[in-house]
Amino acid sequence: MLNQTDQLDRMFTALADGNRRAMIDRLSRGDTSVSDMAAPLGISLPAVMQHLAILEDCGLVTSRKVGRVRTCSLDTAALSQAEQWLNQRREYWNQRLDRLGEMLLETSSEKPQNRETKK
Amino acid sequence: MLNQTDQLDRMFTALADGNRRAMIDRLSRGDTSVSDMAAPLGISLPAVMQHLAILEDCGLVTSRKVGRVRTCSLDTAALSQAEQWLNQRREYWNQRLDRLGEMLLETSSEKPQNRETKK
DNA sequence: TGTTTGGTTAAGCATGCACTTAACTATTCT
DNA sequence: AGAATAGTTAAGTGCATGCTTAACCAAACA
């Protein structure tokens, strides 16, 4: 049973490697084959296969084989899942800073006033 | 000399660990001390220190010590850097899908028409 | 002043990760 | 059929990671 923590673990681990990000970068510009992705990386084909397995495992990339060539493509739904996690934390924190700012403002003015959140 | 690739490596590596994400999660709800963060994690204090070092190293968290207690806080600017990387790739890919969709539409209709991108 | 509290350093350990080479399979080209 | 192409599997290596315990320091408290 794989929970969301597990899923994020895999996702961010996948994104933590420069070669894998380069592969994602390449795929963001269009579908491509395994050896095509390997070319600019300067590593062996088996190494690329292993990266691909990791990217597929966390859902960032899908692939299908036709003839002897395997074509890979990016899945942006998975990408946005990681994006959302970051976004939520950032938003939460920023809201907190806003509230703190207001509180300090009220305190420093040293007279009671309405405490509605600004629009 | 540390380039942007290095920076993203560190950032995503930092985010790849569940305990560190839990620490970030905690910090997104307000500044807190080291032992305060350790409490819900069920790991030793030195372990938390090491996670903290990693989070500070990539700029996600800052801390200052006053008296004997060290207070940590989240830096959302760093968070949004990772967010942007993801966003750019996703956007690029989606635009590509849009263009592909249009191309298929034009092809299937089998008559020449204007090929402007839809607003 | 002695003790608790909060944090820090150092050393060691098990596991995981990125990569390699070698050997093999299956498709396509000549 | 034979050679070249595209990918795949297996095994091994070196280094990084996450954690631990033990020992230690300094601020706050009784």
Descriptive overview:
2 copies of one chain form a homodimer. Chain A has a domain at 4-75: Winged helix-like DNA-binding domain superfamily/Winged helix DNA-binding domain (Arc Repressor Mutant, subunit A). The first copy, chain A, is mainly α and 119 residues long. Chain A has a 3-stranded antiparallel beta sheet. Residues 110-119 of chain A have low confidence and may be disordered. Helices cover 62% and strands 12% of the residues of chain A. The first copy, chain A, has helices at 4-15, 18-27, 34-38, 45-57, 76-109, and strands spanning 32-33, 61-66, 69-74. The radius of gyration of chain A is 22 Å and the shape is elongated. Chain A is built from 5 helices and 3 strands. The two termini of chain A are 44 Å apart. The interface between A and B is medium-sized, with 32 and 32 residues. Chain B binds a DNA duplex (30 and 30 nucleotides) through helix 4.
List keywords for this structure.
homodimer, 119 residues, mainly alpha, Arc Repressor Mutant, subunit A, three-stranded antiparallel beta sheet, 3 strands, 62% helix, disordered C terminus, DNA-binding
